[in-house]
Specification:
heterodimer, A: alpha+beta, Aldehyde Oxidoreductase, domain 4, 31 strands, 24% strand, B: alpha+beta, Ubiquitin-like (UB roll), DNA polymerase, domain 1, 2 domains, five-stranded mixed beta sheet, 6 helices, 5 strands, binds FE2/S2 (inorganic) cluster
């Protein structure tokens, strides 16, 4: 019995359907929920260890400087404190990610403010801070290039290009040519739990590192590389992250190295827990972007050519930027069909904090650009925003710029049509447009507007990522008759702790509580890959269900032989059945364990053969499938203060199979609000390389009072390509709300904001630029 | 200096500098780590506790201000009145990573002591100081509204 064919059968007559309301029987409560809400679950900084020391980090005050000399003066430090500098490292001074160019501690020079230069450990966090005064560093400041404009043309980390059709020819067919430059800001993750990591040396000389992270095997790999220790002598344990959003994908490898170096130097357990200020100062952010579009459309508004140029500010080190850029170029034309495309992407080096993974991973930036560009095109052609989208929307059978032909799970049109039905967008948009040109504001002095966006997100790793990874999972029978699911997936809130058992239970004919999810600990679970790219529910869950199923198969067979029934034995709803015989699975599994021991099944994920991608030419299947969404946002703008209040966002998302409606909805609600924050208020501002708003008092993000009402409609469209049939949902919503909100502002005020966030200051600048001041004053 | 107060219904005495942050005393001295630190400067609400029934930010509260007063933390509330709220938060999508949740539970308990069936606007006002980065607040609203249902 194959769960794929089983689900295929179950869904064959479904067509696209809407998922049930939030509370339904497909949504069992997450098992960690009570412990989290009641404060009893231990996060990285909660349990204290015997004899533990605390670490602190000395950071560069300069965006760019040579280090002339560096010393540790123990006499100036609290008694017993120790200090480490780059010269104390015995292995390569680099954090292994794509390469190891990111220094663990700055050696000859510093390349961004906040770069780690020295590490101290002492008996309390306060003493460790005090010990930093014992470092004596002499810097020679050098000229810093802190914006992408200054970095060009020489300082390009990575450049990618996609060519499709004949762009020059496409422009000759165009009735209108529309250009636009769209910019987005550096966004801070603000996971509520700051980064925290602890290291110690076990009695058998194993180095143990435990803390808040998304990717235990990335961390193990980085430790093993830089400390020149075999992987078996490096054990990494992920504690439940208090939020990640990508922010605990790359940076924890660096922090793990810091605590490990201190633990090795002191032979004591060492913990570093950042406070919010340090977390904001030191950790990666979403890449600021500038995207230039030149588009040609025929007189009906059908795209004939798209020329897109993407610039990402990578910051001082390459880290994950090439992969972020890759996703950016692959999403640059959005959910639209265009026969002639050129996409160029560059990630450039500046003397600022390295930017890294953040929910959406390069896609939100390019989708903001293409969505606003489509609105601009619509105005040029003289049609409304829904119509331009309907005329160009990707359909099954269409080709992407990579040449990938879309299968029939391509549901972009369904999302658009549904969001129109849900919100009556077109009529309202026209009404606001008319009102704007005739009156100046509502009776109460505010103006309302609506905006629409259409978006997609490639599910799983980009290109050959899954092939290279060979994600490995294991299921193992326990002595209590339950099956342990062993993966390296980390539950940072998205709910794999319940989704993995649900998928396995469904595949096996068991109950959710017949499964236990193993703690992500590299000494116990295989490398199922990082918890990123919205891949857990789709790929990891699918494999682990198959592994569990194999174990159940063994138990069923053995039982069938034992009872010697003429009828075939099978497993249903926790019962073993054969003819008139039945027995509880758990009981039989316990006996099976006693007789045969802990059977275990390991599976390695192999992407389907048709998922071929050529990384040189950027041709082929970059993602096995795409999730789609359409948002309508409504805002209200105060004409005096230009303050924007987001009133409502309706998100219609098609995500393949919905595994757990409550959690799925939660992903979309949360991602939508992060996107609204990015659209309206969030910006980690950098001035000459210094972060200006490096505290929560100055970095604003949405509170419950800034939050629109978020309505989610989940559509399920059968898809059987890979794994569970779920498409990735974690990142999708981050792509939709920002362009919809900014379009709504334009609908309300006539102000087309080309740069996020759309703050009152930017609106004012635009107001002055457009010379509309008189028209938007209340009469 | 020794400070005496009523913590989760029990009289306790803590030996600590009077200006220590209550948050550190709870987490480090008393092992009550359900109260979280999200910012340390009064912006996130993860450290919310009740002082004489009023939600306060324990990262800003010097221990000495607790002298002779009643302090309730998530650990105490979870054992008593917060049960139904927690159950709904968990089942209706009000808990994702959970880092904000204890603070939100504490602040909501204070609201519910005053207002039995709060409106969405009242909830928004009461939780204005509690950041949640995961849920978009919708699941939290759903859970609190559901308390009114039988
Ligand atoms: S930790 Fe007290 S408000 Fe953030
Ligand atoms: S659940 Fe993660 S911050 Fe609220």
């Amino acid at each position: 019995m194959n769960p794929r064919s089983q689900t295929a059968r179950a869904r064959s007559d479904l067509g696209t359907r809407e998922s049930e309301a939030a509370r339904d029987d497909r949504s069992p409560a997450r098992p960690d929920g009570f412990a989290k809400a009641s404060g009893s679950l231990a996060y990285a900084d909660d349990a204290r260890l015997e004899g533990m020391l605390f670490g602190a980090t000395l950071r560069s005050p300069h965006p760019h400087a040579r280090i002339r000399s560096a010393h540790w003066r123990p006499e100036r430090a609290p008694a017993g404190a120790i200090g480490l500098l780059a010269r104390d490292l015995t292995g390569p001074n680099g954090v292994q990610l794509l390469d190891d160019a990111w220094p663990i501690l700055a050696g000859d020079g510093v390349h961004h403010v906040g770069e780690a230069v020295g590490l101290a450990a002492a008996t309390s966090p306060e003493a460790a801070q005090a010990a930093l005064a014992a470092f004596e560093i002499e810097y020679e400041p050098l000229p810093a290039r802190t914006t992408p404009a200054e970095a060009l043309p020489s300082d390009v980390f990575t450049e990618l290009e996609i060519l499709h059709g004949d762009v020059a020819h496409g422009f000759t067919q165009a009735a209108h040519i529309v250009e636009g430059t769209w910019r987005t800001a550096r966004q801070e993750h603000v996971y509520i739990e700051c980064q925290s990591m602890t290291a110690w040396i076990d009695t058998d000389d194993t180095l143990v590192v435990q803390g808040s992270m998304q990717c235990p095997y990335y961390v193990q790999n980085a430790l093993s590389h830089a400390l020149k220790r075999p992987a078996q002598r490096v054990r990494v344990v992920a504690t439940p992250p208090g939020g990640g959003f990508g922010g605990k994908e790359d940076y924890p490898s660096l922090l793990a190295l810091h605590v490990a170096l201190l633990a090795l130097a002191t032979r004591h357990p060492v913990r570093i827990s950042y406070d919010r200020h340090e977390d904001m100062l030191a950790t990666s952010k979403r890449h600021p972007s500038e995207v230039h579009h030149r588009s040609g459309v025929d007189s009906d508004g059908r795209l004939t050519a798209m020329d897109v140029d993407i610039l990402l500010d990578a910051g001082a080190y390459r880290t994950l930027s090439p992969v972020v850029l890759s996703r950016a170029v692959l999403h640059a034309t959005g959910a639209y069909r265009c026969p002639n495309v050129r996409i160029r992407g560059r990630a450039v080096r500046t003397h600022t904090l390295p930017n890294g993974a953040f929910r959406g991973f390069g896609a939100p930036q390019v989708l903001f650009a293409v969505e606003r560009q489509m609105d601009r095109i619509a105005r040029a052609v003289g049609i409304d925003p829904l119509e331009i989208r309907l005329r160009n929307v990707l359909e099954p059978g269409d080709e992407l710029p990579t040449g990938q032909v879309l299968d029939d799970s391509t549901s972009a049109r369904l999302c658009l049509e549904r969001v129109e039905r849900e919100t009556d967008f077109r009529r309202r948009w026209r009404e606001h447009e008319r009102q704007r040109s005739t009156i100046s504001g509502d009776a109460n002095g505010s103006r309302k507007g609506v905006g629409i966006s259409l978006y997609l997100h490639g599910s799983g790793f980009t290109g050959n990522g899954e092939k290279r990874l060979a994600s490995t999972v294991r299921a193992r029978l326990r002595s209590d008759g339950r099956i342990e699911l062993q993966t390296a997936s980390v539950d940072m809130g998205q709910g794999s702790c319940i989704v993995l058992p649900m998928v396995a239970a469904d595949a096996c004919g068991l109950h959710v509580d017949d499964f236990v999810v193993a703690e992500p600990d590299t000494s116990r679970v295989p490398d199922s890959g990082p918890t990123v790219a919205s891949r857990t529910s789709m790929i990891v869950a699918g494999e682990v269900a198959l592994a569990a199923q194999e174990i159940c198969g063994q138990i069923v067979d053995a039982w069938g032989k034992r009872i010697d029934s003429a009828e075939e034995a099978r497993l249903e709803a926790g019962e073993l059945l054969a003819g008139s015989r039945s027995e509880a699975f758990r009981q039989v599994a316990r006996c099976h364990y006693l007789e045969y021991g802990a059977s275990e099944v390991t599976r390695v994920h192999t992407p389907p053969a048709w998922q071929e991608f050529d990384e040189e030419s950027y041709r082929g299947v970059a993602y096995p499938t795409y999730a789609f969404g359409a948002d309508v946002a409504e805002v209200e703008v105060d004409p005096d203060t230009l303050q924007v209040r987001p009133l409502a966002v309706t998100a219609v998302c098609e995500v393949g199979r919905v595994l757990h409606p409550v959690l799925c909805r939660g992903q979309i609600e949360g991602g939508t609000l992060q996107a609204v924050g990015w659209a309206l208020m969030e910006e980690a501002q950098c001035r000459e390389g210094h972060l200006v708003n490096d505290r929560l008092a100055t970095y604003l993000l949405p509170t419950v009072q800034d939050c629109p009402e978020i309505q989610v409609v989940l559509l399920e469209h059968p898809w059987n390509g890979v794994g569970t049939g779920a498409k990735g949902v974690g990142e999708l919503p981050m792509n939709g709300a920002a362009p919809a909100v900014v379009a709504a502002i334009e609908n309300a005020t006539g102000l087309a904001i080309a740069e996020l966030p759309a703050t009152p200051e930017r609106l004012l600048v635009e107001l002055e630029r457009q010379g509309l001041a008189d028209r938007t004053q209340p009469s | 200096m020794s400070i005496e107060f009523l913590l989760n219904g029990e009289r306790i005495e803590v030996e600590a500098p009077p200006m220590s942050r209550l948050l550190d005393v709870l987490r480090r001295e008393l092992g009550l780590t359900g109260t979280k630190e999200g910012c340390g400067e009064g912006e996130c609400g993860a450290c919310t506790v009740l002082l004489e029934d009023v939600p306060v930010l324990s990262c800003l509260l010097p221990l000495v201000q607790c002298e002779g007063r009643r302090v309730d933390t998530i650990e105490g509330l979870a054992r008593s009145e917060a049960g139904p709220l927690i159950e709904r938060l968990v089942s209706l999508g009000g808990v994702q990573c959970g880092a904000c949740t204890p603070g939100i539970v504490v602040a909501t308990c204070a609201l519910l002591r005053q207002t039995e069936n709060p409106t969405r606007a009242q909830v928004a006002q009461a939780l204005a100081g509690n950041l949640c980065r995961c849920t978009g607040y919708e699941g939290i609203h759903r859970a609190i509204q559901a308390l009114a249902e039988p």
